[in-house]
Amino acid sequence: MVIAGAHAVIVALPVATSTALSTAAARLATSPARWNRAVRRSATAAYGS
Asked: Which residues of 1-20 are buried (b: 16+ CB within 10 A; e: fewer)?
């Protein structure tokens, strides 16, 4: 049961990643300025710089 759950997570991760990347690409295409601000904000939140 645990192995099946882990396998499901391993399978789901690349799908989620590619979905996130395509979403990011779509946002970048539609609104570069807003996307750049969002990237800076999340980078600041993540790294505290």
From this structure: eeeeeeeeeeeeeeeeeeee
Q: What is the pLDDT of residues 9-29, one digit of tens each?
A: 788 888 888 888 888 888 777
Report yes or no: 28 and 35 within 8 Å, Cβ to Cβ. yes
DSSP SS3 for 48: coil
Where in the chain are the domains?
1-47
Residue indicated by tokens 């759950």: 5
List all residues 6 or more positions away from 49 whose beta carbon is below 8 Å from its beta carbon: 43
